[in-house]
Amino acid sequence: MKEESQDEQSSTEKKIFEAARDVFQSKGLEGARMQEIADKAKINKSMLHYYYRSKEKLFEKVYQLSLIKVIPQIVSLLNEDLPLEQKLLNFTTKYLEIIRANPDIPLFVLHELNKNPTRLKTFMLNEVGRKVQPFLEQLRQEAQKGNTVDLPAEQILVNIMSMMIFPFIGRPVLQVIFEMDEDEFDRFIEERVNLLPEFIVRSTLK
Amino acid sequence: MKEESQDEQSSTEKKIFEAARDVFQSKGLEGARMQEIADKAKINKSMLHYYYRSKEKLFEKVYQLSLIKVIPQIVSLLNEDLPLEQKLLNFTTKYLEIIRANPDIPLFVLHELNKNPTRLKTFMLNEVGRKVQPFLEQLRQEAQKGNTVDLPAEQILVNIMSMMIFPFIGRPVLQVIFEMDEDEFDRFIEERVNLLPEFIVRSTLK
DNA sequence: ACAAAAATTAACTGTTTAGTTGAAATAAAT
DNA sequence: ATTTATTTCAACTAAACAGTTAATTTTTGT
Prior knowledge:
2 copies of one chain form a homodimer. Chain A is mainly α and 206 residues long. Chain A has 10 helices and no strands. In chain A, 77% of the residues lie in helices and 0% in strands. In chain A, helix 1 (12-31) packs across helix 4, helix 1 crosses helix 6 and helix 5 runs parallel beside helix 8. The termini of chain A are far apart. In chain A, 35% of the residues are buried. The structure holds a DNA duplex (30 and 30 nucleotides).
């Protein structure tokens, strides 16, 4: 019977998963080395296979958990029963909090999805696609009443997602061109998190 | 003496480069296989090493040319001597044309930069950083006159870049959640290219 | 206290992939 | 025409890497 002797926080399995998550998220599936994961977790490389069988399987766990960690949280915010302005403020504020807590996930997922666009297609369709439709419908209804900017609902949603996600994906470029160090960039993100929800509402509704 | 017998378009060296560019841009450095590049170029794998010595060197050529192809074009648009509204319309319109012609470059560059953030730091600083500063200054001056939205210049610029670049990076997700096929998504991009410059001006200036 | 199960390790093997080689074909130069 | 340089290729080698094994230590149940 498998029983943890050490507390969950420092169990070998968890140390491996966390090291793997870090390495896969920064290097991608092929860029990651099993030895590097083992080193970062401070365990023998055999333990990776002992707990996760193969690189592929370990990656799959990291990949799926990365998505499951953020996607359901985010899309649920789109279908709360609120007037558009409240929903937008709520959605953007919480979305930014979630990405901020998981800043490496967007680029990681998009790179992997780019290599293999069909992977997770059904998951995306069911977990995101389905739940985005009612929000788009709400946008269209407000547009008919003349309450939104004059753009198709999909374009508005892409504007919103773009402004929230891109700074995290583009960090290495932005940090250099604005000549910021790590702390300065973190403050830039904090400033953004404070200003953006209101800006999105102002530039989307009227 | 090296002399091309076939015309430039179909020379082996060029076929290799183009195949390498496609494969590296969609799979990344480590995800790419030399054999896959050879197959796509329809040449023997040895030719890759004959012309480019190593995977690393071939990659470097592709990576640098990807940047040189787009970066100078884009930043030059920021320092033309035009009033802000004209400059913004001009910048966004042409920027979108350039990305649209090279849609795979942003994700490619950002993924590689994420793996190795210091690489190309001086290039970025000199080619982009320096040239962005005067534009930020122009934004700040207009802000003082009360002509722009009330946000720090850097945040405004990030908003603009986000809305232009993200749809290309996020294509695999967006296409699925909006349930679009390739052609429908291309039309979505075309619509965006038409609507976005004006939207950016409206949401940035006042 | 002891046996059984689980966890850990160092050394090893197998596979994949980048890179080489030497011979053959083709093109260019004399 | 014949030599010389370049280009191409199939078969090979070398290196890096994932994955295995078997022996050892630690933990757990009785």
